[in-house]
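Usage

Read records sequentially. Each one opens with the input sequence:
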Amino acid sequence: METIIRKTTDSDAFGLASEILRSGGLVAFPTETVYGLGGDALDPEASKKIYAAKGRPSDNPLIVHIAHKEDVYTLASYVPPAAEKLMERFWPGPMTIIFNKKDIVPDATTGGLGTVAIRMPSHPDAKRLIDESKVFIAAPSANTSGRPSPSTADHVIEDLSGRIDMILDGGAVDIGIESSIIDMTGEIPAILRPGYITKADFEEILGEVTIDPAIIKPDPNLRPKAPGMKYTHYAPKGSLTIIEDKAHPAEVSKAVTAEINRLVAESEALGKKVVVLTTAENRSSYSTENVILLGETGNGEEVARNLYSALRKCDDLEADLIYSEAFNRDKYGGAIMNRLLKAAGQKVILV
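and closes with the structure output:
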């Protein structure tokens, strides 16, 4: 398959993409979080194509992207008043809500579950594509399964060129990590995936909110209601390990930098290619040549925006081993650490 690539500024880009979606094809497109791999959410065959293109397990549910709040009532069998409050406050934006689904949503899109994940993106290109195609778009991240999510069209090209019909290039995304997911089907709302919208943000609207235990301690035996929470995700090709201060997890202590330097020296002595992930302020703590800066200490938005690009740069450097500081430093620390832990396969050294 030859993949068509168009800038979102090209005159024929959205017309062509819309035609492909309506005919059951796949189009990668930018959102404010990451690039999504889109197909018609109400077409079971399109959803099957998404799983095939990504190499994604078919029990991993897809998020349905809509352009208007009222579309929720077409897809969900019940919309709780509390969910309406969330929609009013955070949509359009990086929030996905889990509802009980109507029969119109095929099981192929929901991973066989009786629930549907719905999001209304704020990115103008995403909204335009949904509107012009007149299709509810099922869209996981536009990468091969397990790889770091794409924050640029080049990342999508690297993973999916030749496997999908079209890529819409809208430049780099703004946020860089996937949407927060909150389940509104139970008595108490539950966060299934942390993201840009935090637990504190949700609690301002809802009161009590729980966190899915699988976020803290993933269980491969549990069937996920949220995308990306069962399997290893976001992983570079090299082996990633996180080094964290046991007593002060929000700090990068001298013990942390000393342990990273010890591991780097030991690994390089064995002929391994090693990369360190850190922030601008801590760069001088490391003597190794291959250091990737994620941003400034305490600026979680910047770290999140750069995270997946940094993990892909590790592949460009052909890193065998990657050592990262922990990033528990501000309101976005939970979302960043969730992605890092998934990328590391939960490998953490506490010092």
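Summary fields computed downstream for this record:
- The longest strand covers residues 35-40.
- The radius of gyration is 20 Å.
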